[in-house]
Design a protein that fits this description.
By secondary structure, the protein is mainly α. The chain has three helices and no strands. Helix 1 packs antiparallel against helix 2. The longest helix is centred in the N-terminal third of the chain and has 39 residues.
Length: about 80
Amino acid sequence: MEALILRRAGHRKAWERAAAGDLFAQVGGFLVWTVLMSAVGHASALGLVPWTPLGVFAALAALLHWRWEAQVPRRLREQER
């Protein structure tokens, strides 16, 4: 039961941190787009707006889920089976 609680808490924390990383990616993309617009006069927002934050969210969610799963001690994972 303890392993299940640790696993759920880890997955919830992973989703929260992935959402925060997604927000940072959106803000960073907007800043890059703003700088490009002011420096060059035109910039394509197609790559920055929809796809970059989605990719960052997916990568962070997968990485953090794996990391938090590894935080559950081996003895607790073996008891579950």
